[in-house]
Design goal:
The complex is a heterodimer of chains A (about 300) and B (about 350). The longest helix of chain A has about 35 residues. Chain A has one domain: MetI-like (MetI-like fold), CATH 1.10.3720.10. Helices cover about 85% and strands about 0% of the residues of chain A. In chain A, about 35% of the residues are buried. With about 300 residues, chain A is mainly alpha-helical. Chain B is an alpha/beta fold and about 350 residues long. Chain B has two domains: about 220 residues, Rossmann fold, CATH 3.40.50; about 70 residues, CBS domain Like (Alpha-Beta Complex), CATH 3.90.1280. Chain B has 15 helices and 14 strands. A six-stranded mixed sheet of chain B has the order 6-7-8-3-9-10, sandwiched between helices. In chain B, a hairpin with a 5-residue loop joins strand 13 and strand 14. In chain B, helix 7 crosses helix 8 and helix 14 packs across helix 15. The longest helix of chain B has 18 residues. Chain B is globular, with a radius of gyration of 23 Å. Classes of the chains: A mainly alpha (about 300), B alpha/beta (about 350). Chain A: One of its GO terms (molecular function) is carnitine transmembrane transporter activity. Chain A: It is a multi-pass membrane protein. Chain A: It is found in: Cell membrane.
């Protein structure tokens, strides 16, 4: 019948393509693997330091620090209470150590996503050409199933925290970049013109007008990045990232329903706590900036 | 027109054309092709067409026109927020077109300051931080920026509001912040782009009074853009009327009111209360009474409206005008006053 079989490339050719790509990547890994590992060694150091800090700190200190952060960011008692009770519950149900490891991972990956994403977002906002070049890349990063890019990362760096961190950052950085770009592009043109008229240089405009006014949008990006990083915790545990993902993975393999649900709920609790903290901070930033529009 | 060296701003043959091939359109304009024809033939929009203007220093120059006339485009050339397609621009003795980007920033920071129609305050900064915004951009740092900011806040009547945020102030107060921010720069040229147009009528008159009062001490060169003829007549030492990218008339309020150059200007001034802006000088005849003491008197510079009111109150048909030394300069007759006021 017409149109039943698609006229595909012949099998030998397809096999040759796959083999060539695989082989050249393998060669690349063999010759440069050590170098690449060396390049990423600062990340390993950062991860270890952060994890030591979280796991070695006495639990009352950790809870107090988290509550303090919540208070400084939101000035809301309800958020502070939520953070404290979530952490206490997690501790009572014997998930403290894993939670600390996960928090450490989230902290480091978010920091890296900000450090990498913010400048890229700024560059995108500065030039339409950069935006056109980067946007499709972000689309790929967000839609490509994360298992797929775990493969080359593992081939290059093996199993462990650093490849896990890289996978998490690849998955979590796009909203940071996009929302920074969006925030800067939507800064009120009148205010930007005023800044020009008073003799601001490019960098003065960036620091005094564009970044501060884009801050609510940038904070939304940070919020999204944290949420996506948390969503990657379980997947990253497959390549050796420790934390709340590992018990979930074990629960899937052995069908331990309760173990799965406890650790799952712990992830949800942390996600909600961080979400409220970052959203609350974003709302406080917006207080003066948003109300300005009332006058137009 | 005043000689160039006394001018704060000298604009010669300024063209601004938006579109794919601006240079060709200038040639077409010089050949006498109309703007409409150019739009049809080249898809270029002529925003400013051969603008020539000399603005003397120390006075208020109003540039008046309806929306789309090009008045805001013109004022943005003075600090090069917009680059002209062609033409020469001398501001405070500086050829603005020859400045490098860094020189231009410096020029904007020290020679010009601007007030905007929609205030354009920084919403995340307090009132005081907004006032010193321009100063904070200067390098080296301005040491007494906060003191200067506080001084100007006081002068525009916003003492005690320095820690508020713009969103907590009314429109009129926000624009006072905008004015203080511009004045704190202590620049010789102040550009005001429809600065009071977004305000309610009563607040607008308030702001005009504040500006006139400040200008008495400051004697800055102020370029004031407006679409409101009343505002133009109240504020302007000199008025230029702009229509579709061309200046149709330049002159004092009296010249605009008594000798409108085109039907377009005539249609504008027809709507205005002339007695409020024309002064007794426009209608008085020389004093013929010698040294005899006049009866009813008004000083030079009195508006016709006020003179008429004085005459009506005293039920006389003429009034004597006194000069600065209190000696009689002329006589204003009721008939002449009415003829000038009612048209």
């Amino acid at each position: 019948m017409f149109g039943k079989d698609f006229p595909q490339l012949n099998d030998d050719l397809l096999r040759a393509i796959k083999q060539t790509v695989d082989q050249s990547f393998l060669n690349f890994t063999r010759s440069y693997g050590d170098t690449i590992e060396w390049i990423f060694s600062p990340l390993a150091f950062l991860l270890n330091a952060s994890e030591r800090m979280f796991t070695n700190a006495p639990w009352p200190v950790v809870i107090a620090a988290c509550v303090l952060v919540a208070w400084l960011a939101t000035r809301k008692l309800s958020v502070c209470l939520f953070v404290a009770s979530t952490l206490v519950l997690i501790g009572l149900f014997d998930m403290w150590e894993n939670t600390m490891k996960t928090l450490s991972m989230i902290l480091v990956s978010t920091l890296i996503a900000i450090v990498a994403g913010l400048p890229i977002g700024v560059l995108m906002a500065r030039s339409d050409r950069v935006q056109r070049a980067i946007n499709p890349l972000l689309d790929v990063m967000q839609t490509m199933p994360s298992f797929v890019y775990l493969i080359p990362v593992v081939m290059l760096l093996g199993i462990g925290r650093v490849p896990g961190l890289i996978a998490v950052v690849i998955y979590a950085v796009p909203p940071m970049i996009r929302l920074t770009n969006l925030g800067i592009r939507t800064v009120d043109a009148d205010i930007l013109e005023a800044s020009d008229a008073f003799g601001a240089s490019h960098s003065q405009k960036l620091w005094t007008v564009q970044l501060p006014l884009a801050m609510p949008s940038i904070m939304a990006g940070v919020n999204q990045t944290v949420m996506m990083a948390l969503a990657m915790v379980v997947i990253a545990s497959m390549i050796g990232v420790q934390g709340l993902g590992q018990p979930v993975l074990r629960a899937i393999n052995s069908q331990y329903f309760t173990l799965g649900i406890f650790n799952g709920l712990a992830i949800v609790g942390i996600a909600m706590a961080i979400d409220r903290i970052t959203q609350g901070y974003g709302a406080r930033l917006q207080k003066h900036i948003g109300a300005q529009n009332g006058s137009r | 027109m005043a000689p160039d060296n006394l001018c704060s701003i000298a604009v010669t043959s300024l063209y601004k054309i938006y579109g794919p091939d601006p240079d060709k359109s200038i040639d077409l304009l010089r050949d006498g092709v109309t703007k409409e024809e150019i739009l049809k033939r080249t898809n270029n929009v002529v925003a400013l067409n051969d603008v020539n203007i000399r603005i003397p220093s120390g006075s208020i120059q109003v540039i008046m026109g309806l929306s789309g006339s090009g008045k805001s485009t013109l004022v943005r050339h003075f600090n090069r927020l917009i680059d002209p397609t062609e033409g020469s621009l001398i501001v405070n003795g500086v050829d603005v077109m020859s400045l490098s980007p860094a020189e231009l920033q410096r020029f904007r920071s020290y020679q010009t300051a601007m007030v905007f129609q929609r205030f354009a305050l920084l919403p995340h900064r307090t009132v005081l931080d907004n006032v010193i915004y321009g100063l904070s951009l200067r390098r080296p740092h301005v040491r007494d920026a906060v003191d200067r900011g506080m001084t100007w806040l006081k002068r525009v009547g916003l003492e005690g509001y320095e820690k508020r945020y713009p969103s907590q102030l009314s429109g009129g107060m926000q624009q006072r912040v905008g004015l203080a921010r511009a004045l704190a720069m202590d620049a010789p040229l102040l550009l005001m782009d429809e600065a009071f147009s977004a305000l309610d009528p009563i607040i607008r008159v308030d702001m005009q009074n504040i500006l006139l009062k400040l200008q008495k001490d400051l004697r800055k060169t102020i370029v004031f853009i407006t679409h409101d003829l009343d505002e133009a007549l109240r504020l302007g030492d000199q008025i230029a009327i702009v229509k579709s990218g061309e200046i149709v008339q330049q002159g004092t309020a009296e010249q605009i009111l008594t000798k409108p150059a085109t039907d377009y200007v005539k249609s504008f001034v027809g709507e205005v209360n002339r007695g409020r802006y024309l002064r007794v000088e426009a209608g008085m005849v020389p004093w013929v009474g010698g040294t005899t003491r006049p009866g009813l008197t008004v000083p030079l510079g009195t508006t016709l409206e006020a003179a008429l009111k004085t005459m009506a109150e005293h039920e006389t048909a003429s009034v004597c005008v006194l000069d600065e030394r209190e000696s009689p300069a002329g006589t204003l007759h009721l008939k002449a006053a009415i003829a000038l006021t009612v048209r």
